[in-house]
Design goal:
Layout lengths: L1 H24 L8 H21 L6 H14 L2 H13 L3 H29 L1
Helix pairs in contact: 1-2, 1-3, 2-3, 2-5, 4-5
Length: 122
């Protein structure tokens, strides 16, 4: 059963990542990986929010579906890593550093924001 939940959630998360990234990227023409940035920032916030809402509950099928399946399929830190390395390799030092700072610092702050919002909701 867990495998089916992960597969189903992963398929949904992957489709959501594809459409979110493609939508965001079509509006940026300077080569900056904005699609991946939007996915990572959104994923960071959502995982913080859901973690805060579910932190006192036992491991459930819903948690497996959401965290491992959907969010595992949605977040794209492997793409972020290779895109950042490519920016460095291609001589775009400023964009590479900006990409690192935005994905990591803002992502962590948004995860904290989601966690804080979840605690407020509860």
């Amino acid at each position: 059963m867990k495998i089916m939940l992960v597969l189903a959630g992963g398929a949904l998360g992957t489709l959501a990542r594809f459409y979110t990234s493609t939508f965001a990227q079509k509006y940026v023409t300077n080569g900056f990986p904005i699609g991946t940035l939007m996915v990572n920032l959104t994923g960071s916030f959502v995982i913080g929010l859901l973690w805060g809402l579910f932190e006192n509950q036992q491991a459930t099928s819903l948690r497996t579906f959401l965290f491992v399946g959907i969010l595992g399929g949605f977040t794209t830190f492997s793409a972020y890593s290779i895109e950042t390395l490519n920016l460095f390799r291609d001589g775009y030092l400023r964009q590479a550093i900006l990409n690192i700072l935005l994905n990591n610092v803002v992502g962590i702050l948004l995860a904290l924001g989601g966690l804080t919002l979840a605690k407020f909701i509860r």
